[in-house]
Write a structure and sequence with these properties.
seven-stranded mixed beta sheet; globular; 150 residues; 4 helices; three-stranded antiparallel beta sheet; alpha+beta; 2 domains
Length: 150
């Protein structure tokens, strides 16, 4: 579904400025960049700083999913379940090679690429309500081995 179809589905009246080959959409008197494309661009150009709280959606497989499991799917014979769990980490280091060193609450370090689709910044409500699941700044000081996430 194109962005134009999505806007029509929501019921927003608009017209595209045909004088330029841009993605500007005129809503009333204001010209705004198509927010759907801006969201995608924002995801591609994510920048992280040391101390940022992030959420990493990790894929897991076990015979019994935990209480925080989501997107639970049984295996073909029903012996195992594949599911996803949100991991609440903090950025410890940023490398020039588009990689981040992320720390857990208990001090374990993970090496993750910045363009990984399973990685995102924590939302405001996650930072507020799930504060205890994120590591503290003091835990960044501890040294530990780095685990690469693939």
């Amino acid at each position: 579904m194109t962005f134009k179809q999505k806007l029509l589905q929501v019921g927003i009246c608009f017209f595209i400025d045909s004088r330029e080959n841009t993605s500007d959409v005129r809503l009333g008197f204001r010209s705004v960049v198509v927010f759907y494309q801006a969201k995608i661009l924002g995801e591609m150009l994510r920048t992280y700083a040391v101390g940022d709280l992030v959420v990493y959606t990790q894929k897991k497989q076990s015979p019994m999913p935990g209480p925080r499991a989501k997107n639970i799917n049984p295996s073909q014979r029903g012996e195992l379940y594949s599911y996803q769990v949100d991991k609440f980490w903090m950025v410890a280091e940023t490398n020039s090679s588009d990689e981040l060193v992320l720390k857990t609450r208990r001090g374990k370090a993970h090496l993750v690429k910045t363009d990984d689709v399973r990685l995102r910044k924590a939302r405001w409500w996650e930072r507020f309500f799930l504060k205890a699941r994120f590591p503290t700044v003091e835990s960044l000081a501890s040294n530990s081995s780095i685990t690469s996430q693939n």
